[in-house]
Amino acid sequence: MQDQEEITPLFTEECDIAMTVNGHRYKQKVSVRMLLSDFLRHELHHTGTHVGCEHGVCGCCTVLLNGEAVRSCLMFAVQANGMVVTTIEGMAGTNSDLHPIQQAFQEKHGLQCGFCTPGIIMTVHAMLHENPNPSDEEIRQELSGNICRCTGYQNIVEAVKLAAERLREQQMEVL
Amino acid sequence: MKPPRFHYCAPHMLDEALALLDQNSEDTKVLAGGQSFVPLLNMRLASPTYVVDINHIAELHYIEQEDGYLAIGATVRQRQVERSLLVQEKHPLLVEVIKHIGHMQIRNRGTVVGSVAHADPAAELPALLTCLNGEVLVQSIHGERVIKAEEFFTGYLSTALEPGEMLTEVRFPLISPKTGWAFLEFARRSGDYALVGAAAVLNPAADDLCNSAHIAYLGIAGAPIRGYDVEAAIVGSALDETALDAAAEASRMLVSDDMEDVHASVEYRRVLTAELTKRVLRTAWERQSH
Question: Is residue B2 part of a domain?
Fold first, then answer.
C-alpha cells in the first residue's frame, strides 16, 4: 500500500500552468476549476473572447487550441497547460492592421452588435485553414456552431467568401 | 455558471488512473473531451469531489483495425476519427454518423468513447454501436470485461459501468463492402440534439431480397434501441412499399410513451420515427452492392 501511495499522482485544487497565448508565454497558478474562457478574460485580461451560454451552444467563446477551434468554456485552463492558444486579440498584425478575415467582416458588414464576432472570426480562421475555398453550403455548415442573433448570417457568409478569396490570393503571392 | 470545486489529477498512465478511480470510486468522475461533462459541471448538475483527467494517457490514444472491428481508445477525439484515412476507408458509416455530432468545435474536443460512456439517449454513437451490435471494453484495477452494446446502455444516461470501472475502448464491428448503410436524424437546428435518428445496415442475398437487417434508433426511448420488429418486417422482402409500410408501423411502437418534452410530443416523434425508418432503409438499400 505504501508503494501504491508513492507512485500514484495526487489530487490537487491548484496547479501551476504555462501556456502560449497569441505568441506570449504566460506562467501562472490557477484553480483547477477555472475555465479556459475565464482564465483568458479574468487572469490575462483578454476580454475579446466573449462568454455567452457557458455550456457549449453559442460559440462566442471559440478560440484556437493548437490551431483547432474549440469552446473555451468547455475546458479548464489547466487542460491547456503547455498548449498554444490564439484568441481574437492575436488576429490583427502588430501595427493594428486588421487580419484579412476581420477586414472582410468590416467591409461586408458581417456583424451588427458584434458580441458573437470574435468566436465567428476564430471559427472562420480554422475553417479557411482546412478548406481555403469553401462553398456557401460548407460555410453555413461550419458556422452552425456559432449563433448570431443580429445579422441573419447573409453578410457573414459574404464576408467569409471575401476573406477566403483574399487569403487565397495572399497564398498565391507567397508561392 | 461556474463549475463547483473539485480535486483534479491528470495521470499519464492507465494504471494510475484506475487506481485513482478505485480510491474514491463513488465520488470520482473521468474527464476526457468534456463536451458533455463540463456543461454538467458548469450548470452544477454534477458535482464530483474528484475528477480524473485522462487526456495525458498516451496508451489510450489509438484507432486500430482488429479482427472484425475497429477499436477506438478513450482519448481519441471525434474529429480525429472523422479525418482518419483508416476509418474513412474501413468504416464510412462511422464517419457519416460522427459528422452529425454537435458542431466542428465540439468534435475537436469530444471523444468517441466519452460519448458512449455518457450514454445520452439522443446521442449518435450509442445508437450506432447498438445498431452494429458492437462492444465496449471496461477496465478497473481488478481486471477488465467486454460488454455488448445492448447490455451496456441500461437507461437514461445510465450504463452497466460499476464504480471504479472506466470505459477504455469502443469496438465498432466492420461492415462488408457489399453492405448497404445509412444514418439519418432530424434536429430542429444543425448540431442540436436530434429529436429522432436512425442507423441501418442491410445485407442482400443472392436472390436480391433482404437477407439481414440491423436498425437502431436514438431519441425515442431512455436508451438507444434496436428495432427488431422493424428488421423482421423487411427481412426476406425486396423493400417494396408494403414492406416499408410494415417497417414504419413497427417503428412507431418503439417510441416510448414518456418521450414527451418541450421539443416534441410522443405522437410527433412517432411520425418522425416512421418517416425516418422508411428513408434510412431506402438509402441503405440503394447503397448496397448486389
Answer: no
Q: Residue A117 — very low, low, confident or very high, per pLDDT cuts 50/70/90? A: very high
Which residue from B85, B261, B95, B239 is spatially nearest to B188, judged by alpha carbons?
Answer: B261
In a domain, B149, yes or no: yes
Residue B17, domain extent: 7-53
A interface with B, Cβ–Cβ below 8 Å: 4, 7-13, 15, 32-33, 35, 38, 54-56, 59, 62, 65, 68-71, 73-76, 78-79, 123, 126-127, 141-142, 144-145
User: Hey, of A39, A63, A71, A140, which one would you mutate to test binding to chain B, going by the most B CBs within 10 A of its CB?
Assistant: A71
Instruction: Round to whole Å and give the CA distance between B126 and A126.
Output: 29
Task: Report percent pLDDT > 70 for chain B.
Answer: 100
Print the domain residue range for A156: 100-174
Query: Under a CB-based contact definition with an 8 Å cutoff, are residues B212 and B178 in contact?
Result: no
- As a whole number of angstroms, the distance between CA B276 and CA B199 comes to 10
> Is the alpha carbon torsion for B6, B12, B13, B14 positive or negative?
positive
Q: Which of A3, A14, A32 to mutate to test the interface with B (most CBs of B within 10 A)?
A: A32
pLDDT value of position A172: 87
With CA atoms as reference, the chain A residue closest to B80 would be: A68
Of A105, A107, A98, A122, which Cα lies nearest the Cα of A160? Answer: A105
Looking at the fold, whether B85 and B126 belong to one and the same domain comes out as yes
Domain count, chain A: 2
Distance, CA of B92 to CA of B76 (rounded, Å): 17
The pTM for the full model equals: 0.94
Q: Which of A59, A90, A121 is a domain's end point?
A: A90
Cα distance from B208 to chain A (closest Cα, Å)?
Answer: 37
pLDDT recorded at residue B277: 98
